Write a sequence for this structure.
């Protein structure tokens, strides 16, 4: 069975393009519009990898990652943070919260695919 | 539904979303104008720009990414409190929001990249934001997934000691090994389980295993290193060339260009990545601080930490040593104050004079005397060589000029510099720079045609401008040549007649016509451009060149280009001259101007001209010119000088022979004097004036002209 990835970003187009790319590579994808929405989606699903933006309304990415890590089922799930070059401090915060992988924005779909492929197979 | 359809749909989503964001941006900016300190608004505005940038990157919209990046950077510094909101800032940012909006609407219409006008508008807007940008990062480009070229496959040994927390962080070691298989062939994987504790002490969440593997891959080392970027910090990852490949690296390093830094050699050979080098330098520094001793050589650290095998480091060290050896042989230089050098030259000048004075007294004979002469000559040559600098630095400065002017004029020109190592007096180099600049601009402006016109004439769209320098018979020659349209004889002649420079019915040779461009007030450009001035150019160039005792000539072929050739003495400090006497006064004529010397024919003569082997030779009586009292000598001589292809005789009383002498400039009081370029002290202690042949001849023919007209 294909592995499931959760993409969390407040931009619909980012969610859409990342989904297209990941589905094309053979993953299943579900999407969350912000941290709060994503946290709700974690329950009752088996998610193998999480991709999350940092700047989001309602609940930002770093809080979301910290909350997710508190759930037993997501203690060791690989998490990719979408950071920017100008936000080195955010990257550090995200790593401390438990997201050890990252992709720097702006990125192209292939870059996202190779980051995901390093962590899990489809 | 195909992926293409999906992407089109995603792009539509982006357009809708972007319209929203642009609106947020605009409203936010307007709000900031009223309430500059509203933190929530600043946040909204920043996030709008940030999201726009991120999403544009996803669709590969480079222009939008670069543009919004700058806007985001400015807004970022507002958010960080480094920059205050001002009316100026808001007025600079608002049109940026409009520009983004225009781009988005273009996108909705199916245009992915801006047209030329929009690109220009974008650039202008960004220029307006420049004052608000700190030293932060400038434009950033969308990173493209690197396509693996057909690089030769290399064999690597990988030693992977993952951190104990690896699994807890969601990282699966086996997953990285699997991913390695996508960039090369993995073989001989072995597991090192020596770290594994007894079963009862084992923590199932901790990673105890280490791996060794061999990878055959055409990917550069950086790419292999990037596989492990997420675990790099906590793990010990070593990627070294396999043993049987060491020779290849050593050979590559031997063949590399010179470098005096071991690190640079290792990085460009591909054996070490920049990250690894940074790490090693960090270790080096830490060790030095801790032990308080001199830092351990970087090569030792690289070997000790298993980053590179010793043979490769040794090869790099060898390369470095060779570079340093050749360099120390080549140029051991010391810098000295130019004033001291001038003082030395001055003294050598005095020495030359004193020596010619002793020469006068001791007579020509004597072996000791000739030995002293030889030595003084050598000292003089060496002293002058001290002032010599290669002209290349000055010529290379024009690269920028050519680039800028081309942009301004919309022309494509490549600059070819040759002979940059030809040396000349530093003082001359400085003074020739401006005339050269003018010639270069002139070639670009009037000589080389616009690309379209060039193509019409069957030429390459890109023009060529050549700067060439070489030594020729004790002079230095500098050429500025282009492959442009060449000089237009008819146009020049018409203009010259119009300006009254020549008579309408004058019959002129091609060379004479071309020389007209150096006449004062002459310009053929029908539209005056901001570049090559308003017709004050070429005559000023010629005046500057002749002021340096040089000459200038033009060579041109219609439709194929023009070359302007400047000929200058190597130095201004010393002159080879011919000493002549008129009554009690002595004058020096620069020797390179003298073509021959004849006796002034006795008997009746035309007014100021004589018959020289069937040709008319105008002459100047120096006695008359300088109002020297006394009767002329019974037998006078004519020193014939040549200037710009025209020969003129100088009538003198006595010929006193060749001499080499140091030029002493005349005081400021005489700076306006046009026929005298300097003075010198003779061995006898007397003063001789050095004649400036160019103006002397030109002034004279002008005076003759005036007189002839008056007479008519």
């Amino acid at each position: 069975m294909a592995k499931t990835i959760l993409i969390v970003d407040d931009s619909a187009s980012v969610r859409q393009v990342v989904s297209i790319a990941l589905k094309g590579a053979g993953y299943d994808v579900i999407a969350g519009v912000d941290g709060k929405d994503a946290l709700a989606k974690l329950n009752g699903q088996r998610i193998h990898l999480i991709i999350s933006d940092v700047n989001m309304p309602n609940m930002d990415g770093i809080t979301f990652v910290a909350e997710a890590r508190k759930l037993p089922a997501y203690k060791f799930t690989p998490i990719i943070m979408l950071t920017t070059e100008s936000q080195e401090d955010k990257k550090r915060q995200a790593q401390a919260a438990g997201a050890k992988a990252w992709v720097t924005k702006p990125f192209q779909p292939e870059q996202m695919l190779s980051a995901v492929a390093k962590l899990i197979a489809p | 539904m195909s992926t293409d359809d999906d992407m089109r749909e995603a792009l539509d989503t982006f357009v809708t979303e972007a319209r929203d964001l642009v609106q947020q941006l605009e409203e936010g900016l307007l709000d900031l104008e009223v309430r500059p300190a509203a933190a929530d608004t600043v946040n909204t505005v920043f996030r709008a720009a940030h999201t726009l940038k991120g999403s544009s990157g996803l669709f590969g919209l480079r222009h939008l990414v670069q543009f919004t990046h700058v806007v985001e950077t400015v807004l970022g510094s507002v958010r960080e409190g480094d920059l205050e909101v001002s009316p100026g800032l808001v007025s600079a940012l608002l049109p940026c929001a409009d520009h983004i909006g225009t781009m988005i609407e273009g996108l909705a219409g199916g245009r992915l990249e801006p047209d030329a006008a929009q690109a220009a508008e974008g650039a202008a807007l960004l220029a307006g934001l420049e004052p608000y940008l700190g030293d932060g990062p400038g434009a950033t480009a969308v990173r493209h997934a690197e396509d693996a070229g057909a690089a030769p496959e290399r064999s690597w040994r990988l030693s992977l000691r993952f951190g104990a927390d690896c699994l807890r962080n969601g990282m699966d070691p086996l997953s990285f090994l699997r991913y390695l298989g996508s960039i090369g062939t993995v073989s001989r994987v072995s597991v090192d389980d020596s770290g594994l504790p007894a079963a009862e002490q084992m923590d199932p969440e901790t990673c105890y295993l280490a791996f060794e593997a061999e990878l055959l891959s055409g990917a550069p080392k950086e790419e292999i290193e990037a596989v492990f970027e997420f675990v790099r910090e906590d793990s010990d990852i070593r990627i070294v060339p396999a043993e049987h490949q060491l020779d290849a690296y050593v050979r590559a390093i031997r063949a590399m260009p010179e470098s005096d830094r071991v690190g640079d050699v290792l990085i460009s050979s591909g054996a070490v990545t920049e990250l690894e080098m940074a790490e090693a330098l960090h270790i080096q520094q830490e060790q030095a601080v801790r032990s308080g001793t001199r830092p351990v050589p970087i090569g030792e650290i690289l070997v000790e930490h298993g980053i590179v095998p010793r043979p490769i480091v040794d090869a790099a060290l060898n390369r470095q040593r060779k570079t340093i050896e050749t360099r120390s042989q080549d140029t051991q230089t010391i810098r000295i104050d130019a004033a001291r050098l001038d003082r030395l030259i001055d003294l050598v000048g005095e020495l030359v004079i004193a020596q010619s004075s002793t020469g006068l007294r001791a007579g020509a004979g004597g072996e000791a005397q000739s030995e002293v002469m030889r030595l003084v000559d050598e000292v003089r040559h060496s002293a002058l060589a001290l002032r010599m600098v290669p002209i290349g630095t000055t010529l290379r400065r024009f690269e920028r000029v050519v680039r800028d002017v081309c942009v301004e004029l919309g022309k494509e020109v490549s600059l070819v510099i040759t002979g940059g190592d030809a040396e000349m007096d530093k003082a001359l180099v400085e003074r020739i720079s401006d005339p050269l600049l003018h010639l270069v601009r002139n070639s670009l402006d009037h000589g080389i045609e616009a690309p379209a016109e060039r193509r019409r004439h069957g030429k390459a769209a890109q023009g060529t401008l050549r700067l060439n320098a070489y030594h020729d018979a004790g002079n230095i020659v500098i050429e500025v040549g282009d492959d442009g349209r060449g000089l237009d004889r008819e146009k020049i002649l018409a203009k010259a007649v119009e300006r009254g420079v020549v008579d309408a019915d004058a019959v002129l040779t091609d060379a004479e016509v071309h020389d007209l461009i150096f006449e004062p007030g002459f310009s053929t450009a029908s539209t005056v451009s901001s570049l090559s001035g308003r017709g004050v150019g070429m005559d000023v160039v010629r005046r500057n060149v002749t002021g340096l005792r040089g000459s200038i000539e033009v060579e041109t072929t219609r439709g194929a280009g023009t070359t302007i050739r400047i000929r200058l003495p190597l130095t201004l400090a010393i002159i080879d001259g011919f000493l002549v006497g008129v009554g009690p006064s002595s004058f020096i004529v620069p020797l390179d101007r003298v073509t021959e010397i004849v006796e002034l024919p006795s008997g009746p003569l035309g007014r100021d001209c004589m018959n020289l082997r069937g040709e008319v030779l105008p002459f100047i009586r120096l006695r008359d010119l300088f109002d020297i009292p006394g009767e002329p000598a019974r037998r006078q001589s004519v020193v014939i000088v040549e200037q710009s292809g025209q020969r003129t005789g100088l009538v003198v009383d006595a010929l006193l022979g060749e001499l080499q002498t140091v030029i002493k400039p005349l005081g400021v009081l005489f700076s306006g004097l046009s026929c005298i370029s300097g003075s010198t002290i003779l061995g006898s202690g007397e003063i001789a004036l050095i004649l400036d042949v160019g103006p002397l001849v030109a002034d004279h023919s002008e005076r003759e002209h005036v007189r002839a007209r008056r007479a008519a």
User: Anything to note?
Assistant: Residues 12-24 of chain A form the longest helix (13 residues). Residues 39 and 63 of chain A are 10 Å apart (CA to CA).
